TrEMBL record:
One of its GO terms (biological process) is iron-sulfur cluster assembly. It comes from Candidatus Roizmanbacteria bacterium GW2011_GWA2_37_7. The lineage of its organism: Bacteria, Candidatus Roizmaniibacteriota. This is Iron-regulated ABC transporter membrane component SufB. SUPFAM superfamilies: Stabilizer of iron transporter SufD. Residues 203-437 form the SUF system FeS cluster assembly SufBD core domain.
Length: 466
C-alpha cells in the first residue's frame, strides 16, 4: 500500500481491499464487442442485446455534461466494465468464497440480515453473489431478486418496465449504464401487500479501475407498501473508479415506496447516478438520500407526479470533507392536480469540501391546487469550505402554493461555548451541533441505520473513521 493509500485508509473504515479474484474479467475499455460479450455471458434474450447495443451507440455520441462538477478526468478507456467474481450465485452465506464472505462479514451484512431485514442482496463487482428473502414474503407473492435473475424468470414484467422511465438517451451515464448494466435489484410487490421490514441491497467495489453499473427496478402495485435500503462502500486506491447506477420505480395507485441510500464510497469513486420514480393517483414516493463518501457525486432523485393526489418527498444529506464535491439535489415534476412535493436538503462542508444543492421543480398546466415546499440548509465548518445552491422553479399553473427557503450558516460560537461550558470537548460539541442540524433527515431513517449514519458523521467530524 502506498503512503497516500495508507493516509486515506486511516480516514475511511471500509477502505480495506481483498485480493482480486475473478471467474471472468473483461478487457479494459468499452467497445461494441465488450457489450455483446456481457450479454452473451448472461445468456440474455435478443431484445436486451439490441437494447444494450443501441445504448452503447448513444453513449458514444453523447457529450459529457457541461454543467456541474468537472468530469474530464474520467478515462473511459482505462476502466474494466465487467468482472464476474464467482461462477454461480451462492445459495447460502457459507458457500461464498472466503474473501467475499470476509468482506461482508466486516461490513456487517449477515448480522443486519438476521436482525433487521426481510430480504438482502449483496453485489460484489458486477454480479450479485448472494441474496435471501424471507419465506413469508415469498408466500405473499413479493419478488426480490437481482436484475439478471428477474430477466430470466420474469421476462415479461422486466420488458414492460425496463428503460421506460429513464430512456437510454436521457443522459450520457444513463446510456452507459444501459449498455453495460449488471446486477442490481428487482422488487415486485403485489396489490395490497405491505412489506413490514426493509429490503436491503449492498454494493461493494473491490477491484481497481473498475466500473459498477447496477440496475434497479421496483414496482409497487396498487395499495402496496415497501421500504428498500441500499448501502455502498469501496477500497481506497490511487486510481479512480466509476459508479453509474440507474434506478426506476413505479408507484401505483395508493401505493407507497421509500428508498433509502447511505452512500459511503471511498474518495476515489465518481458516483454518477440517475434515479427516477413514477407516481400514480394518491401514491407516495419518498427518497431518503445520504451522501457521505465518494470524490464526486452527482445525484438528483426525482418524482414524476402523474396521478391526482400523488405525493413526492426527497430528504437528503450531503457531507463533503477534504477532496470531496457533493452535487446533490432533487427533481419534482407535477403533472396532475392536487399533487404535493417536499424537498428537505441538508449539507455540511468541512476542510475545503464543497457541497451543492441542485434542484428542479416544474408545475405543468392543469396541475392546479398543487403544493411545493423546498428547504435548503447549508452548514459550513471552516473558511476553506464552500456551499452553493442552484434552485430552478418552472411554474405553469396559477392556482398553486409554492414555498422555498434557503439558509447558509457556520457553527455558532455561542452554541459551542454553551456546550463546552457543560463539559463537552470542542470536537464533541461540534459533532452534537452537526448531528442536530441533520436531525430532520436522520429521524426518517430506520433506527439501526440512523445510528450508523450518526456514528459515521461523528467520526468524520473527529477526522478519523475506523
Amino acid at each position: 500500500m502506498t503512503q497516500q493509500q495508507d493516509d486515506l485508509q486511516f480516514d475511511y473504515k471500509y477502505g480495506f481491499s481483498m485480493p482480486e479474484k475473478s471467474f471472468y474479467k473483461a478487457k479494459k475499455g468499452l467497445r461494441e464487442d465488450v457489450v455483446r460479450m456481457i450479454s452473451k455471458i448472461k445468456k440474455e434474450p435478443k431484445w436486451m442485446t439490441e437494447f444494450r447495443l443501441k445504448a452503447y451507440r448513444i453513449f458514444v455520441e453523447k457529450t459529457m455534461p457541461k454543467w456541474g462538477p468537472d468530469l474530464s478526468k474520467i478515462d473511459f478507456d482505462n476502466i474494466y466494465y465487467y468482472l464476474k467474481p464467482t461462477e454461480n450465485q451462492a445459495k447460502t452465506w457459507e458457500d461464498l468464497p472466503k474473501e467475499i464472505k470476509d468482506t461482508y462479514d466486516k461490513i456487517g451484512v449477515p448480522e443486519a440480515e438476521k436482525k433487521f431485514l426481510a430480504g438482502v442482496s449483496a453485489q460484489y463487482e458486477s454480479e450479485v453473489v448472494y441474496e435471501s428473502v424471507s419465506r413469508e414474503l415469498s408466500k405473499q407473492g413479493v419478488i426480490f431478486c437481482d436484475m439478471d435473475t428477474a430477466l430470466r424468470e420474469h421476462p415479461s414484467i422486466v420488458k414492460k418496465y425496463f428503460g421506460t422511465l429513464i430512456p437510454i438517451h436521457d443522459n450520457k451515464f444513463a446510456a452507459l449504464n444501459s449498455a453495460v448494466w449488471s446486477g442490481g435489484s428487482f422488487v415486485y410487490v403485489p396489490k395490497g401487500v405491505k412489506v413490514k421490514l426493509p429490503l436491503q441491497a449492498y454494493f461493494r467495489i473491490n477491484a481497481e479501475r473498475f466500473g459498477q453499473f447496477e440496475r434497479t427496478l421496483i414496482i409497487a402495485e396498487e395499495g402496496s407498501d415497501v421500504h428498500y435500503v441500499e448501502g455502498c462502500t469501496a477500497p481506497i486506491y490511487t486510481t479512480e473508479s466509476l459508479h453509474a447506477a440507474v434506478v426506476e420505480i413505479f408507484v401505483k395507485k395508493n401505493a407507497r415506496v421509500r428508498y433509502t441510500t447511505v452512500q459511503n464510497w471511498s474518495k476515489n469513486i465518481y458516483n454518477l447516478v440517475t434515479k427516477r420514480a413514477h407516481c400514480a393517483e394518491n401514491g407516495c414516493m419518498e427518497w431518503v438520500d445520504c451522501n457521505i463518501g465518494s470524490g464526486v457525486t452527482m445525484k438528483y432523485p426525482s418524482v414524476y407526479l402523474h396521478g391526482k393526489g400523488a405525493r413526492g418527498e426527497v430528504l437528503s444529506i450531503a457531507y463533503a470533507g477534504k477532496d470531496q464535491l457533493q452535487d446533490a439535489g432533487a427533481k419534482m415534476m407535477h403533472f396532475a392536480p392536487h399533487t404535493s412535493s417536499r424537498i428537505i436538503s441538508k449539507s455540511i462542508s468541512k476542510e475545503g469540501g464543497r457541497t451543492s444543492y441542485r434542484g428542479l421543480v416544474q408545475v405543468f398546466p392543469g396541475a392546479q391546487n398543487s403544493t411545493v415546499f423546498v428547504s435548503c440548509d447549508a452548514l459550513i465548518l471552516d473558511e476553506d469550505s464552500r456551499s452553493d445552491t442552484y434552485p430552478s422553479m418552472k411554474i405553469k399553473e396559477n392556482n398553486v402554493e409554492i414555498a422555498h427557503e434557503a439558509t447558509v450558516e457556520k457553527l455558532g460560537d455561542e452554541k459551542l461555548f454553551y456546550l463546552m461550558s457543560r463539559g463537552l470537548s470542542k470536537a464533541d460539541a461540534e459533532s452534537a451541533l452537526v448531528l442536530g442540524f441533520m436531525e430532520p433527515v436522520t429521524k426518517e431513517i430506520p433506527l439501526e441505520y440512523s445510528i450508523e449514519l450518526n456514528r459515521l458523521i461523528r467520526l468524520e467530524m473527529e477526522g478519523s473513521v475506523g
